[in-house]
Amino acid sequence: MQRQQKELTTKRNRVYMHILKIIHGYPPNYYAGSEVYSQSVCNELSKRHKVSVFTREENLYAPDFSIRHKKAIENLDLYFVNNPQGKDGYQHKQMDDNFADLLKQLKPDIAYIGHLNHLSTGLIDELNKQKIPIVFMLHDYWLMCPRGQFLTRSIGKRNNFAVCNGQNDQKCACDCYEVYFSGKETEREQDIEAWSNWVNRRMTETKAIIDKVDLFIAPAKYLRNRFINDFGILESKIIYLDYGFPTEYLTQTEKSKDKSNFTFGYIGTHIPAKGVNLLIEAFKQIEQPATLKIFGRENGQSTKALKKMAETSVNPIEFCGEYVNKNLANIVFANVDCIIVPSIWAENSPLVIHEAQECKVPVITANYGGMCEYVHHKVNGLLFEHRNANALAEQMLWAFENPLKMVEFGKHGYLYSKDGKVPDIQEHCKELIKLFENVKTK
């Protein structure tokens, strides 16, 4: 009996594979969707496998590209590369060299990449040199768009965050990198040429990654199609697999008894791409008694401007600050009637949509990108015309006037499963391991 228990314990504790996770940020330093997903995956994979995370930190007082090691939990180690100044760079030789030395030390079986922004495209070459297979989860459009979201970043123009309809070197220079121009009209043509050439070199570098990666994963069918049609990834080389979630923190809770008004909620960062300003403008059109709760870490001047915008609302707009993911169901979802995802870029598979659906909270989001892939109009939520504050206000008013129907929409939850539940992180990681093993044996 003791021998059997010992063998069972040994089997449970056995490490089967060494996985190197590469991601541009990791909690608690960075807390956006790809970072939260990465932490969930690494925590789960480390229960049976050895996991090393290569990520970045920004320490202005430490040497650039130095690597700091931190033990997280059993079977999970964090390696922080210091990159406080190379935000717009896409390749850093010193980082690549230090990474190559680390690879020789770690000897991972496979690399699972989430993002190379703020890191270096040269990491891919070092993995290839040491014959380490690569699986790449696509979280946005960074490989095919220098800024990652197909949103322009102009200066002095009426709309500084327009949706870009496709990558073009000169258009990128004028629409996104004009912020670095000298500002002198006599030098404008030189600036355009210089930045067009920079974009061209950058795009040549990222396009070459296609042949250096063994398998790409897209968490939304919309995203997969974009990379096939616009970037030339072969259909056989990119699969669809939605995110997985540690659903134990997404248990259904009773609604707050202190809430009297119909309450709309927002969860996320306070940056222009997320469309929080669009949400505030839409909510200000609601004259009936309602409340808007905005959850998420404050972001300096951006949050200050949003609060100023909210001052003219006849109904209360509450900035509720940060939340801890494990308390999401009780702190956020128990206190709202629906969640709004108003992003002005083509989000692919927002975590917050899934989290709300798991808690049976209906979602209002845009009819664009992967957002409308997971929310179907008047089935499990409501859709509005992308980037249109008036259209969003119309759907918010409909929700206010039809609270019982909204409750019914919430009950449908996630549409891609029979029981309306989002993919569990355990099952998701089992699928990942199958993919890793298939890639290793090719």
Can you put this structure into words, describing what you see?
The chain is 36% helix and 16% strand. With 442 residues, it is α/β, with parallel strands linked by helices. The chain folds into three domains: 2-142 and 199-244 and 425-441, 3-Layer(aba) Sandwich (Rossmann fold), CATH 3.40.50.2000; 147-181, no CATH class; 247-412, Glycogen Phosphorylase B (Rossmann fold). The strands form two sheets. An eight-stranded mixed sheet has the order 3-4-2-1-5-6-7-8, sandwiched between helices. A six-stranded parallel sheet has the order 11-10-9-12-13-14, with helices on both faces. β13 (363-366), α12 (371-374) and β14 (381-384) form a beta-alpha-beta unit. α2 packs across α15 (425-441), α3 packs parallel to α4 and α8 crosses α13. 42% of the residues are buried.
